[in-house]
Amino acid sequence: MSISLRARLFGLWLMSLFGSLVVAVLIIGLFRQTAAAHRERDRAVAARACQAITAHYDFYTANMDAAPDAAAFRAGLRVVLLVALRRERGIVAAIEPSDPSANPGVAAMYGTIPAALSSVVTDQINDAIAADRLIVTTKGGFLNRTTIATCPLGGPLGTPVANIAAVTVLQADLLRSAFTRIAFGGLAVLLVTMLASAGFLARLVLGFSRRLAGVETALASDQPGLLDLTGEAELDRLINALNAATTRLDAARARIAQSERLAALGRMAAGLAHEICNPLGAIRLRAETGLAAADPARRAAALDRILVEAARLEALTTSLLGFAATPSPQPRATDLDALITAAIGGPVAVSMTADPTGIIWPLDPILTRSALENLLRNAIAACAPTDSITITAQATQNLTITIADTGPGIDPALGDPFEPFTTGRADGIGLGLAIARDMIRAQGGTLVQAPATVGAAFVITLPEAKGET
Fold first, then answer.
1. Taking the CB of residue 343, how many other CB atoms lie within 10 A of it?
2. pLDDT, tens digit, for every residue of 417-451?
3. Which residues form the Histidine kinase domain (predicted)?
């Protein structure tokens, strides 16, 4: 089973779409893995910063025997934060008591913790002090999250600030990260590429199909001639090849037509010579007989026969003139009943039935009547009194007239009955069918012999004339 170019291009696009989807899934998977790695890194950074604060706080308070005043203690805590976080980036930190109201003024800040996180930070400080261990939590969504680490700090001995803790806050917005921009940019490029390829392939397929349909329409016409180029390089190469083949075919047809015309002319010349030779021979014989006869009656009979043969030559000449003339149709709306009645002419010795069903059709009445008369004349001459002739007509997109008889039919040994000078009757000329066919062809119609089980049948087909008057 052959696959069309459209189907193959669509399959190619589906393959590229599948490949792009695989790449997109890989990018998304890599992005999720990177985001998860960033989450764990943020937790590690926050925990490390918190532990650094704890270590520096322990160093700061190691030699304290008594609690310093609040201002000095806050200053020391700020130094602890600055030293502990000097190598960290993006960290916000604080040292706060578990109960700020019970220990006013004992706190230090490194940056500013968002107010929205104050309650969360306080709760986590209490949890860390209660558990006496590091606690790391992550708040927020997949792309925008906040990591909070809290570490309990041991206060100076004998001071009321024993329940304090260090807190580090690290906020991450993956939407603004370089990797996110790269990932989203890659997905956008894939999407644009697929849409652009779909549009390009659709335009290519539709344009190619439209041009191919134009070529098919041109080839399907009655007179295709040379095809116009489409602008598609591949299709134009095929059209050039078709045009070259058409040119060669037209030349071959012209040669064949010329050969057929010459052959037909030869057959016609042979038939014409035969048709002329017989009457001339008879005229010569009768003339010689009349000249040699002493009886006036025999001379008169010879002259009568000479006149008959001369009349036959005159009829032959008239038929030849009609056959050679080029009909010029003058179509007009014609009542088919009246036309067939006129073609029949009057009483005949054969049973005849006509059923044109009241059809009015645009045609040339003179040419059509002449064709009908030739067909009816042949049918009447071929039929015996016991035979019948039937004329039927039907009008749809074309007008069809069928003339069928129950006579002996046409002897297949005669060959093409439309060939000039082809006749099965001794008194026939053999131009009636050829002339009838030319009359119908002049109107754009056809006259063909139809298959018949009994007798002979001929079918006239006429299109609706365009030049109706």
1. 21
2. 777 766 666 556 667 788 888 888 888 899 998 88
3. 271-466
Backbone φ and ψ for 420, nearest 5 degrees, come out as -55, 140
Measured distance CA(302)–CA(299) in Å, rounded: 5
Just give the CATH number of 332-463: 3.30.565.10
Cβ-contact 279, 272 below 8 angstroms: no
At 379-417, the pLDDT tens digits run 888 888 888 888 888 888 889 989 888 888 887 777 777
Q: Cα separation of 148 and 126, whole Å?
A: 13
Residue 149 CA to residue 52 CA, distance in Å, equals 12
**pTM > 0.70: yes or no:** no
Cα 271 from Cα 276, distance rounded (Å): 8
Question: What percent of the chain has pLDDT above 70?
Answer: 78
Domain ranges for the chain:
5-180, 233-324, 332-463
> Alpha carbon 12 to chain centroid distance?
17
Rounded Cα gap, residues 3 and 12, in angstroms: 13
Nearest in space to 97 (alpha carbons), one of 156, 184, 19, 44? 156
Whole-number CA gyration radius for the chain: 56
